[in-house]
Amino acid sequence: MIDDVQQQQIAPKTDIALITSTYEGGDLGVTIQPNLYSFKVWSPTAVQMELLLYPPLTGGNPDDIPSALKQSIMPMHSGEQDVWILKVEGNLRGYRYMFKPTFDDGTSTIAVDPYARAVTMNGEMGVIVDMRETHPEGWEQDERPELNHPTDAVLYELHVRDFSIHASSGIANKGKYLAFTETGLRDEAGNTLGIDHLVELGVTHVHLLPVFDFATVDESNVDDDLKDASNYNWGYDPLHYNVPEGSYASRADEPETRIREFKSMVLALHRKGIGVIMDVVYNHTFDTAESSFEKLVPGYYYRQNADGTYSNGSGTGNEVATERAMVRKFTIDSVRFWAEEYHVDGFRFDLMGLIDVTTMKQLASELHTEVSPSILLYGEPWGAMESPLGDEMTLKGTQREAGFAVFNDNFRGVIKGDSDGDGKGFATGEEGKEAELWTGVQGSIHDFTQGPAETINYVTVHDNLNLWDKVARTQGLQDKLGFLTYDEDGSIRGFNNVEEAVRQANPYLQIDPAHVLGNETVRRCLLANGIVLTSQGVPLIAAGDELLRSKYGDANSHETGDVVNAIHWDQKQRFKPVFDYYRGLIRLRREHPAFRLRTSEAIEQHVRLLQKGKGLLSFELQGAAVGDSWHRIIVIYNATKESHRISIPSGTWGVVVEDGQAGVNTLRTIEFTEKMEGSNNIHDQSTQHSKKSIKNGSDYQESSNNQESNINQVQVNMLSMTVLFSQSS
Fold it and tell me: Would you place residue 60 in the very low, low, confident or very high pLDDT band (cuts 50, 70, 90)?
């Protein structure tokens, strides 16, 4: 690092009450015109500001000392609204730059431009890049995939490195943005891999864990040792908000490369009809004292407690004060930059509770009216710890009619139970959850939403135990399967390292390969996400659920490394019936609008409860009234370990989801016809003569043809979901 950057002083904290200026222009940072570069930075408490300018690193080597030492120091002048300005003529493409404010007590710091659009390796300096020169071929013709309404979306949460790093991925650009550009890949059995797998699965949007520049991965050696866990992080440690993360680029030392490859990823997904959602972390920064925010305006960008200490609602040491005018402006400017420059289709806000409601509402309004009405906005309606933001926190209920959605942790808990322990929910064997489940199935319109577009329905994401591991834990299988455990100091218990522990683990020990769908853990997983995919609202599933992904019981794998986090693509063939089930349910949802109602009024009128209680829930969707090709649809959830007969109305019913099979094609037909004497004659035209079920953990056969003594009832097998449709009114 350059000496001037190392030798920094700590400036005194600003008296926030004295700062009243607000800059409304859209040109902070570097603006490029022909042969003219304009630099602007907001720093109301600085008495002097200098631009430090360095020529490009000629060899692209961070140790290129001769080039690094060629520093130009240029004084900037104070303009309106406390913005410091400098215009420089010439060709500065690729030049590196920093800002050096000096304060009235004589202290000075050196900061990267918070509006920087490109940086050197590991984000040490800003870089001047003409964004028009970073477009991949075809970028100017790129179009967002069509999304008529948020409830039409099916979200898939995914980590860039997890997607492709495993050897079984068949992908050349492992762990990189460019992995998403590789098409035509298949395993030995002919199963699609990579981006083609996402298309086959049918999801509408890939929700990427943080892909802006984060702090904790050394971009200079990220590819040196794939077993080195320090090369891995989820990315919830923001460094530079307006720059793509360099460890996912083929060359982190080439500032334009990460930009171009990020755009190539977006373009490739868009061409496949898949939108891109960024997980963004505007609630805190990785560091406080060393952040550009603190160096340029000490104390302004972070909330403080009454005693002047920095508050810690994020649980990471600070929380960004989005309620202050220029912080709000930065947040909105940054989100708009990604939406407009990178064509990003949506944003998930980490710890959104720490972002004030006014900022979220203004952001949603601007994006939907000035960029695209199809942009999805949602986030976590909570903070990690207590915050002085108080009543202005964006919590469940504040999103009503505001243009954004919130994660539905109420529904999540009802379906699965707690997040990391052995507590149970409806799908994991707890009775008495049916009323709360019914509330969630209706889009939580009787809970905290104004309409179904405001709830993100899910059971698991990257945080906490993933779905397979959670369900296994509720069954008490964690020791039998060899799940990882850690001591208080973070070391792996009973093994020398994580790799050794993973080799000894066997998360699928209990599955009979010949009867995958007969396994209780499998069935409970399918039921849990089956509820998500057939409920009103916006569904989200975690990457790999369709492959029975396990993280070996690691409930916080944010820095465990590839050995725990990598998606094992060889499991697609191993658990092909599971993948087919997910694909079928997603197709069912996307082809039938009755599962995607748009208003609370439509739900009130056209979603009717049939039965609930004792581990059972059934309801009817009136499809004809909402333009569905199926006039009536019945959905039945059976979370018990017994088969049940559920009453349904008279008529001819086609079964499209049953016992591990799902889709839009009729599996069997059931006809209930009225006899003259008033009794019913039942005709079951099933092509299947028996059903697999589980009792006390073992497989057993149960006939499905003994319905003669039951009037207007359909058999629903244990631990499963059944969906039927009728064309009659």
Answer: very low
Contact 401, 365 (CB under 8 A): no
In what helix (H) or strand (E) does residue 363 lie, and over which residues does it extend?
A: helix 357-366
Predicted confidence (pLDDT) per residue in 346-388, tens digit: 999 999 999 999 999 999 999 999 999 999 999 999 999 999 9
* Surface-to-core class of residue 547, CB atoms within 10 Å of its CB (0-12 exposed, 13-18 middle, 19+ buried): buried
Q: How many helices (H) and strands (E) does the chain have?
A: 17, 30
Percent of the chain scored above 90 by pLDDT? Answer: 87
Which letter does DSSP use for residue 468 in this model? H
What's the rounded Cα separation, in Å, for the pair 599 and 586? 21
Longest dimension (CA), the chain: 100
- As a whole number of angstroms, the distance between CA 435 and CA 444 comes to 12
353: left (phi over 0), alpha (psi -120 to 50) or beta: alpha
Please, how many CA atoms are within 13 Å of residue 289, restricted to the half-sphere of its CB?
6
CA atoms within 13 A on the CB side of 75: 5
User: Distance (Å, rounded) from C-alpha 330 to C-alpha 344?
Assistant: 18
350 is catalytic: yes
Q: In this structure, what are the phi and psi dihedrals at residue 89, rounded to the nearest 5 degrees?
A: -90, 155
The chain-wide mean pLDDT, for the chain, equals 92
3-state secondary structure of 581: helix
Strand partners, 608: 620
Q: Which residues contact 722 (CB under 8 A, 6 or more apart)?
A: 634, 635, 636, 638, 646, 655, 657, 658, 659, 714, 716
Distances (CA, A) of 682 to 260, 653, 675, 714, 722: 62, 11, 10, 10, 18
Catalytic residue (one of 380, 392, 554, 658): 380
DSSP 300-311: TSB-B-TTSPBP
Assess whether pLDDT exceeds 60 at residue 679: no
User: Out of 54-63, 123-132, 204-213, which region has the weakest mean confidence (pLDDT)?
Assistant: 54-63
The C-alpha atoms of residue 658 and residue 605 are separated, in whole angstroms, by: 27
Catalytic residue among 253, 350, 546, 620: 350
Cα–Cα distance measured from residue 245 to residue 224, given in angstroms and rounded to the nearest whole number? 17
CA distance 75 to 98: 12
Beta strands (DSSP E) in 486-571 are 538-542
CB atoms within 10 A of CB 73: 10
